[in-house]
Each structure stands twice: as C-alpha cells, then as structure tokens.
Write a structure and sequence with these properties.
Strand content: 15-25%
CATH topology: TIM Barrel
CATH architecture: Alpha-Beta Barrel
Binding site for S-adenosyl-L-methionine: 30, 71, 122, 193
CATH class: Alpha Beta
Helix content: 25-40%
Structural class: alpha/beta
Keywords: 4Fe-4S, GTP-binding, Iron, Iron-sulfur, Lyase, Metal-binding, Molybdenum cofactor biosynthesis, Nucleotide-binding, S-adenosyl-L-methionine
Order of helices and strands: EHEHEHEHHEHEHHEEEEEEHHH
Radius of gyration: 19 Å
GO molecular function: 4 iron, 4 sulfur cluster binding; cyclic pyranopterin monophosphate synthase activity; GTP 3',8'-cyclase activity; GTP binding; metal ion binding; S-adenosyl-L-methionine binding
Organism: Effusibacillus lacus
Shape: globular
Number of domains: 1
Number of helices: 11
Binding site for [4Fe-4S] cluster 1: 24, 28, 31
Strand order of the largest sheet: 7-8-9-6-5-4-3-2-1-10-11-12
Length: 334
C-alpha cells in the first residue's frame, strides 16, 4: 500500500516548491540585505539529475504539482531542459514558475514548450525609479516585457506578486487594481514577512492587507469574492465589477493560512523544509539512490511540521514555540 504525504494534522501534501538557485540578478530589499549575500558555490546546488530523483520519489508519494523558484530560477542555465525532464515524470500534472521577470521575455516560449503552464511574476512597482530602489537596480521595462511575453505564449493563469510596503508602494495599489479591470491578470498583494530578519526593521514596512479593500472602496468599487484562481497558493481572491482579472490577498502574518498548507520545499542545496518560517530542514543528498531512505526522509520532515508558523507572534513580540530560520528568502526559495 502506497504511503501518502499526510501530516499529523491531516494536511495532505501534493505540492513541492523547488529552489533552483540562491542566486539572483536583483537585490530586493525584503529578500536580501543591503550589503548583499555570500552565494553558495555552484557545486553545492542540486544537479538536474538529483532534482529529478527527488521529484520521482515525491511523485510516488502523491506530489502532483511543482513550482520552480529561486533566488531567480532563470539565472540557472538550461532551466527548460529540467522542465522537460520533470514534466515527463509519471504523476506530475502541473509545473509553475516564480520569477522576477527580467529574463522571461527571452525564455518564455522555450519554457512553455518544455512544460511550464503558468507563471508568477514579482512586480512590486510599475514606476522605474521606485522599482530600481526596491530591487536595487532593476529595470521594470524588462519585467513588463516578460509579462507581455507570458500573454503571448499562453501561460495561464498569469499572476503578479506585489509585496505591499507601508509608505513605499502603497500608493500604487489603485494602479494594480485598475490593471485587473483591463487584463486577465491576477494581482496578489502579499504582506511583508519577517523571514530571515534578526531585527525589527520589517515592522516599519508592514501593512495589513485590509488596506487594499479600503482602496477599492475609495475607487468607488466593491470587490466580490471569487473562486480561487487555479494554483496552489493561499490567496483569498476578489474581483472588481466587470474586471477581466482578479486580485488576491496573501496575509501570512495577520491571518495565516497554515491550516490548509499542502506544500513542502526543496532548497537549492538539497534541504527539505517542512515550513518556510522555522529552521528545521533535512538534506536529501546522501539519500539519493536509496529509494527507501529518501522516502523515509520525506516522512521525517513531515512528522515535525508544526501546525502554524506563528509569524503573527513575531509582529506582537510574543514568545515562539520553535526556532525561526536565519535563512533569507532567496536562500530558501520564495
């Protein structure tokens, strides 16, 4: 009888997020420190053969959906070749990509043909000067070109990830909402999270997502709840009257979504993380080639997965039940 990835809280895990690299061509303020980071050596990254071996095992245990992340996954050479290999694994039904969009215009067609069905594009501002400040040097026109390429090659759905930051990009909420009126795009506003931060600076940028609904009302439009857009994410979706697209709210801090969590994470250096926020992780590398040992490792990771990540306790300065990770988002896989 096949084992399935069900944890002690009854949550079935059919979704694996795979970080292909901790490297990135941008330096976003919420992802990396200003001084930059020491990236791992290339030989520390899981090889494509190793990633395929892990996914084959995961698929036997009921994983059906994959998401490729980073760092920035498109800085890793020949990503489309890995996609082709993963899409051919029995049981894998869907492969998505999270990207900053800088290289997406030139790679979209190859990725689509290889088996990527949908994309999430990080876009925290549509204003070049502000985008450059958030990303520490990025060119927003390249991201917008990647968005257009995504429409052209037929990725569906297309989602935009917008990390909402108090007194930084909150004045652009109206512009993103208007975009959903005109195009079949799904904008997800995400609360600023205290991942890998050893100080309280993130609190100054934190803004509860009720602000987005307030902006809808200020625009004279009442958003209606809508069915979740296809995918694995935790967003609560809404649609403005007459809109072609939708917007979603992802509030891991103020209203966590842990009770419906269905995901495990595989870091670029080969660690299974049962929870984004806690430090617990299990390295797969020495078990690759031993199918039973690798299977057992998945269940060891799942066995210690907590009921909640407790980020709200960080916001209010309360004591935590576990040790938070010291890894930055780029080191874990966003």
């Amino acid at each position: 009888m096949n084992r399935t990835l069900t944890d002690k809280f009854g949550r079935v895990h059919d979704y694996l997020r795979i970080s292909l690299t901790d490297r990135c061509n941008l330096r976003c303020v919420y992802c990396m420190p200003e001084e930059g980071m020491q990236f791992m050596e290339n030989d520390k990254h899981l090889t494509f053969d190793e990633i395929e071996a892990v996914v084959r095992m995961a698929a036997k245990l009921g994983v059906r959906r994959l998401r490729l992340t980073g760092g920035e996954p498109l800085v890793r050479p020949n990503v489309e070749k890995l996609v082709s290999r993963l899409s051919a694994i029995p049981g894998i039904e869907d492969i998505a990509l999270t990207t900053n969009g800088i290289f997406l215009a030139q790679k979209a067609e190859k990725l689509r043909k290889a088996g990527v069905t949908r994309v999430n594009i990080s876009l925290d501002s549509m204003k070049q000067e502000r985008f450059a400040k958030i990303t520490r040097g990025g060119d927003v026109s390249k991201v917008l070109a990647g968005l257009e390429a995504s429409f052209r090659v037929g990725f569906n759905p297309i989602k935009l990830n917008v990390v909402l930051m108090n007194r930084f990009n909150d004045d652009e909420v109206d512009d993103f909402l208007r975009m959903t009126l005109e195009r079949e795009v799904h904008v997800r506003f995400i609360e600023y999270m205290p991942i890998g931060h050893d100080d309280n600076g993130w609190r100054d940028l934190y803004l509860p997502l009720e602000y987005v609904k307030e902006r809808c009302e200020a625009m004279g439009m009442t958003p209606e709840p809508t069915q979740s857009v296809f995918g694995n994410g935790p967003a609560e979706y809404f649609r403005l009257p007459g809109a072609k697209g939708s917007f979603g709210l992802i509030h891991p801090v103020s209203d966590h979504f842990c009770e419906s969590c269905n995901r495990l994470r595989l870091t670029a250096d080969g660690n299974i993380k049962p929870c984004l926020f806690w430090q617990d992780e299990f390295n797969v590398r020495k078990y690759i080639g031993d199918e039973q040992a690798l299977e057992d490792l998945f269940f060891r990771a799942l066995d210690i997965k907590p009921e909640s990540h407790e980020m709200a306790k960080v916001l209010f300065g309360e004591e935590l039940s576990h040790e938070p990770t010291v890894r930055r988002m780029s080191q874990i896989g966003g």
